[in-house]
Design a protein that fits this description.
It is built from eight helices and no strands. The longest helix has 31 residues. It is mainly alpha-helical. Helix content is 63%, strand content 0%. Helix 1 packs antiparallel against helix 2, helix 2 runs parallel beside helix 4 and helix 5 crosses helix 8. It has two domains: 111 residues, no CATH class; 64 residues, no CATH class.
Length: 185
Amino acid sequence: MAHEGQRVSFSSNARQVLDTSLPLGRRIGALRRCLYRYRRPIGFEAAFSFLRFMVGDFVRDPALLPAALELLTASHAAWQADLRAYGVARRHAKRLGDRVPDPSVPNPNRPAHWYGAPREAALHAVWFWYSKGASADVDVHSLAAALVERGRFAAGQREVFERVRAEPGESRAVVHQMAVAVGEA
């Protein structure tokens, strides 16, 4: 067992998720810690909701916890592979004198999508935020409604999306997930 201040790995938490001798609350807590270590690419609560959406309500049916962990582990492993590839590319670029990464190249140290199911997770995240009323911006709310309802934007909404996407604001995370959902991230 970890002591206060001691970090526990994703794999240690994953073992706890599968340990049926532990109380359900501890197993779900371990799954949440696994999700936390994954850097919550679509937001923590949206990602937790996405796992429940994909495999079923493991909070009520602990037999579904292994499936949730499997989905999370596969996504986490794909992210880790991307991190390793990025590290190799950065070391090579540094040897060539390129000390600052190109900002247009995605940096997996800050994952911006769910690995393995980016569109599905992004649509779920948009639905999650929309259902919680997370944005007071009328345009963002309208765009989220279109994605939740149709999975895409109508022609006129494309222009609104481009404008909203260019503006700074409190809805940046949901706007980014909209871009992932429509294949523009």
